[in-house]
Amino acid sequence: MNIPDEMNAGPQPLDAFMDGQTLRNHDLVAASTTHLTHKEVAKARKGRRLTINTQRRVLEALNTCLRTRESAPVKVEEIFNYRGR
């Protein structure tokens, strides 16, 4: 199935950031206090366009993981190169 180009934003900075921090998709899902799925994290990393609410859930889970590592929190603009719908 081909996905239209307007639905793909290409690999996101989130992917490289998570690789650099040695975080897996499951780490974000486990850290999430909201309903975040493995599929949503995978889509976020690959650049499938997400809603702003899903971007925020990914961001919250990522920042929760970073707090446990005593790293500085990140902003949505640092991990996504587009604004969710």
Overall body shape: globular
Low-confidence segments: none
Major sheet summary line? none
| Average pLDDT rating | 93
- Radius of gyration, Cα only, in angstroms? 12 Å
Helix content range:
40-55%
CATH class: Mainly Alpha
CATH fold category name = 434 Repressor (Amino-terminal Domain)
Q: N- to C-terminal separation?
A: 22 Å
Number of alpha- plus pi-helical segments: 5
Structural class of the helices, strands and pairings?
mainly alpha
Helix-strand string: HHHHH
Estimate the strand proportion: under 5%
Q: Do you know the CATH architecture? A: Orthogonal Bundle
Into how many domains do the coordinates divide?
Answer: 1
Strands, count: 0
Characterize the structure shown.
With 85 residues, the protein is mainly alpha-helical. It contains 5 helices and no strands. It has helices at 13-20, 25-31, 38-46, 52-68, 76-79. The model has no long low-confidence stretch (mean pLDDT 93).
